[in-house]
Amino acid sequence: MENKVAILTGAATGIGKSVAQKLASKGVKVVISGRREELGQKAVEEIRSQGGEASFVVADVDKEADIRNLIDFTIKKYGRLDMAVNNAGICNENLALGDADPENFQKMLQTNVMGVFLGMKYQILEMLKSGGGSIVNLASIAGLNGIPYAGPYAATKHAVVGLTKSGALDYATQNIRINAVAPGTTNTDIIAGSLALGTYDEATVSAMQPMNRMGKPEEIANAIVWLLSEESSFATGHVLSVDGGFQAK
DSSP label at 99? Predict the structure, then answer.
């Protein structure tokens, strides 16, 4: 992976940050993005202190112009794009479907679906110029199953699975691989936010996994790095569950 170039959205903290650190440790030049500049710059400093090469770009995946600017920055700085991780996502509500707020659902659609779509669109167009690449999208156990009190969120993650599989078929003969990971409940900001809404508590979300614990960001990152790498060269259109046994139930 030496000297490859990667873009990661929503990577100032959590899974995205962990992926960036692992890629940088393997010699990948990483461009991380997010809305929180202070945290993003801190993540970059950590990577650089460990000998990696990293940059941060303020970008909101809700805005097409921000995504295009992120791509343009990367190409101007490094001249190519080899890998991308569409990690940015939100969950702003945990209610039964009849109680769900359409405005909250619309916000999730914009970030979780349109953000991934726009990221993939411009990443693919750039990768075609340099002969190929590898993209990993963040799905979820909620993208493969129904989850109580999470219908709108689950719908957005099902859409991510559809974009992943269809995009993989579109570019299967053009050396662009597109895969996804479907994490179980993982100890990240998005879960902390969901817990703060009060529908679930930590014991409940831990018990969703047969391992009876939440995943760690680095555990999900290991799977993402594998999917990005040539070690998974015959895998495309795949949704890799990293979920403490959830899918086995």
Answer: G
